[in-house]
Amino acid sequence: MKSAKFNLIMPSSVDFPLLASSIFQERVKPGGVYDELSDLFSSMGPEAIANAEFGVDFFRQNFGDDFTSHFSYVDKDSEEFNANLFGEILGAAHGTCVGALGNHFIGGDADSVNDMKEIVKGTQSDHEFNAITLAGGVLYKVPDGDNIDRNRGTEARGAEGYIKKRSIDVVNAEHNGLNRRARHQTPPRVPNDSEISVGALYDPRLMLDYGGQVFNLDKAKLVQPNWCKMDDTLIVPWKNYLHLRQGTLIVANICIRMHILHPKNKKKPKRRVYQAIINYLKVVAISDIPVAYPPQPAVSRVNNALKIASGQSNAASVLRMIGASRSSSGSSVSKKVPKHTSWTGSIADNHPELDRDSDGFIDPEDMDVGGDEFAGDPADDQTKAAKRLKTINGYKIMNPRLIRKIMAHYNYLPNSISTSLFEERRKSGGIYDKLAEAFVGMGPNAIANAELDQDFFRFNFSEAWSSNYSFRGMDSKQYTANIFGEIVGQAHGTYTGAQGNHFIGNDPTKPKLLDDFTKTKCTIVIACPSFPTAAVSDLFYNQICTLSSIRDADKEEEDRAGTAVIPKDMVKALRGGGELDAITLTGPPLYTVIKKDKTSNNDNTFASPAKRNLKKRNFASTSNDHPSDPHNDILPDETASTTLAFPTGSGQQIFAGAEYDHRLMPDFGGPVFAMKKAKLIQPQWTDIRNDLIVPWKNYDLLRPGTLVVATVCFEVFVMSPKSASDSVRKIYHATITSLRVIAESDVIVAPPTPSVSNKKKMSAQPVASSAAASALASIDWCSTATSSSLSGSDHTLDGEDPPKEGIDVTTDGKRKKARKQ
Question: Which residues share a beta bridge with 8?
């Protein structure tokens, strides 16, 4: 049974630059939690993982018999090595999984990408190692004495194991959808206080996100781990999302394991999986970052003291004492807060208006702005959670609605925000009805209705020597089809800025440059639209089925040939271990690319691998007075500036294929960009009024939550291995030939600065059309669109339109307003 998983990062005074709350700021004050952590861990010796040395304080040995390929680590006394560590919890986008699925992987080829899974990792592709992954114990367990049928549930995905399309009935779709989602189950029983203890077993349906096709549990029960809140009461698993939200500071006692997995296909490499397994965990500083959660069952709050198993090692015992020194030394902890909750003292003193439980503990739920508020009208500020936020003075941004929407921008997923703009879509005769009717009537011109090897076929349109291939239609021309979806946040793969999908390498101090000779493209990840009708939901699911069938057919061929392939598919799961529910669309080249002259010296600075031989820092040489900055500032040299002019009707005409100055992108600049002659290219992307979207307005007009339709073609790029031990790589692209916004979004975005504006109307120009593109063009989307204007300044953080004057831009991308003459 799968386990929960955390990703920790170095604690900071603020996890999001716009949300520097007093709760985070209190941590860095003298005598605060950071001082206590540093004093305690520096004096722990090898019981703190920061002070332990491999080969001196702990050693590797076989875990089990002598023939096993699993290893653990022991101390000098030949007992299992246990050590303590601390960190701040990261969000789900970085690998934290504390829901009903845990770290369960539902299938596909993505699991074969890496032959090593480490405990440490980088939170961003261009950073060194700066995060630690912790694995919990098993999330579910079959009670002793119960027998289970190992073959049960194999029919869930069909005999072939592939997902199958749904039939679409536009008229009765909503009724059929309700019947399909109906569940006649008795509600799970909530355990009382006396039943909650370490190792206790609960009904798995208590998990708020339990349900769906993935779950097929019969006798397995939910297991209570030894994870505690600040008052030493247990965190029940269905409250993980709340008490272990991102930004929470925790300490944990862990042991270390390493597993060698042998592949069934001997041509594939062995996999090494390293795990830091949690024996005991305690929250030492809460977070007030807003969280969104699924609708809850009617459960009572469990806040009374619960039974906790005693520690099994000296290291764990040390953790249980954290907080006692500050509470007993006469610190400024309020007398209303018990000594064992001294970690909450600074919060209690500064915010007495927050409710406390009968034992004095301030529950993070009192500061939550998620949950039911997401299901209602965000304009209503009279919720309990919103009132709590209004009374906290530490925020730089006071409006709780604004805070919630800013947090939603980067990690945005459909259904996470409900406003009147989203609700209008599903009304009778609205955009969802028009969308379903149009796509059902398109036939194979809509990817949801098309079938591989029936409506489109694999074909090599490139040179005969190339292994790359695409697909042709019944007319033997390149196959194009229409697709729709709602744009998700950047955390899930949407990149529409100046860098596109360019990968700069693992070392930010030596980035792989984006220059005149480097190709980069925008990527837009789409998911099923928010609050869809049953017909729209089924159509999007069928799109996933068609695209998945392309990879399924290739995999069958590879298995017959015994070829090891590492694929990068067009479809993916937005949540770790979830079902396939998103589609990655790839735009055309973002910039013109100059062919490299082999006789000239135009070498790029290529990326270096992440630094492996890391050396520990001398703790005594660091200062507690000045928090360390884990990232070094890279300051480019100042260079001569030139005036940057925006395209105008009198000078540079705006049309599909037009070329602009690459410095027009608002986030252009920094050490990655080394362009001189490359030009920014105008794609055939239009807004809801059918005006062209200039690339420097992508962040605004293609913000998360926007509903788009696109005409795409499919391309597969095959990369041959460089050595016999390497695998073939296949990259699947759904390449956008044209795109149109059919419903706008009012998700607040934080645009790159300085933002730019062009008031001139930019009309789309006619381009070569396919049957699929013509099918889209014939639909009058505007007849169901709302009349509200959602242009840049009304729904972005920059409150005013920028001036129309010129902008001076240095060649390294720095900007300043040009002085008026």
Answer: 89, 132
